[in-house]
Q: What sequence folds into this?
């Protein structure tokens, strides 16, 4: 797999991790009959920040790979 493909996969992983945080909070509060913003924020705190941190880390890695792949492709086109 080339660097651009790897970067795209890491960006996809980042999106999945970020959405999993919210889905987990929604599943955690699925038995509650009434919802409000304060309650959902409390559920997000219960889920924790690890998914958010890992999603940001995966996004940064993905962007680095995408930029690196584009830079190599640009240099290859300029040389040949």
A:
């Amino acid at each position: 797999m080339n660097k651009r493909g790897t970067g795209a996969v890491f960006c996809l992983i980042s999106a999945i991790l970020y959405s999993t945080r919210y889905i987990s909070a929604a599943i955690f509060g699925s038995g509650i009959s009434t919802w409000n913003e304060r309650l959902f924020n409390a559920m997000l705190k219960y889920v924790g920040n690890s998914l958010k941190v890992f999603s940001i880390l995966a996004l940064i890695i993905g962007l680095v790979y995408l930029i690196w792949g584009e830079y190599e492709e640009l240099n290859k086109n300029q040389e040949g």
The mean pLDDT is 92.
